[in-house]
Amino acid sequence: VDNLKIALKKVDGVLIKPGETFSYWKTIGKPTKLKGYKKGMNLYYGKFRAETGGGLCQLSNLIFWMTLNTPLTVIERHRHSFDVFPDSNRTQPFGSGATCVYNYRDLQILNLTNENYQINIRIEDDYLVGEIRTDIKPYESYRVYEKDHRITHEYWGGFLRHNLINREIFDLENHLINDEFVCENHALMMYEPLIATKAEKR
User: Fold this and answer.
1) 88 CB neighbour count, 10 Å cutoff
2) pLDDT tens for residues 104-124?
3) Engineering a disulfide at 55: which of 11, 40, 68, 137 sits with its beta carbon 3.0 to 4.6 angstroms away?
4) Do the Cβ atoms of 171 and 142 come closer than 8 Å?
5) Residue 190: is it exposed, middle or buried by C-beta count within 10 angstroms (0-12/13-18/19+)?
6) Do 189 and 161 meet the contact criterion of CB atoms below 8 Å apart?
7) Is the separation of the CB atoms in 156 and 48 below 8 Å?
8) For residue 97, which of 135, 134, 64 has the smallest C-alpha distance?
């Protein structure tokens, strides 16, 4: 939480004007001890380890998810390489986040509209809460969903999880305008999936 509070001082209230690009790392900068960042948990090749500024992917995950529910355009996003937790408490589709590693894996968002958009994020009871505001009435709504989900058992014994993230765009009368591809995910599962055997299916 301490690291997130420091990063939020840079991100909360950021305005993305028409034609501008928001860069996650350009906005936050390098997370260092000098700036007050502490060691936090980061996932590194499937294992958790403590690193200065660890835990900031929670923020990039939220910004990416919020952006998918706006007319803004994501021009750089990197998928998570590992699926760490089962779906029991998952409220969003698998693979709907964005990992960020300073300074070669960034999250960048381009404003191709004629309106200003503002990122607003805060912490409430140790949870990140956010919204992206604009100065006009919304003229579209969105539904983000996954498709072509599958789990493959690899020759070396592990499991990989795959899917596509799409979003449907609706007008104010709830008519479908477009169904567009967002991103593709492939992640190494860090837990054994519950796959029914042929006997169980019978």
Assistant:
1) 5
2) 899 999 999 999 999 999 999
3) 40
4) no
5) middle
6) yes
7) no
8) 64
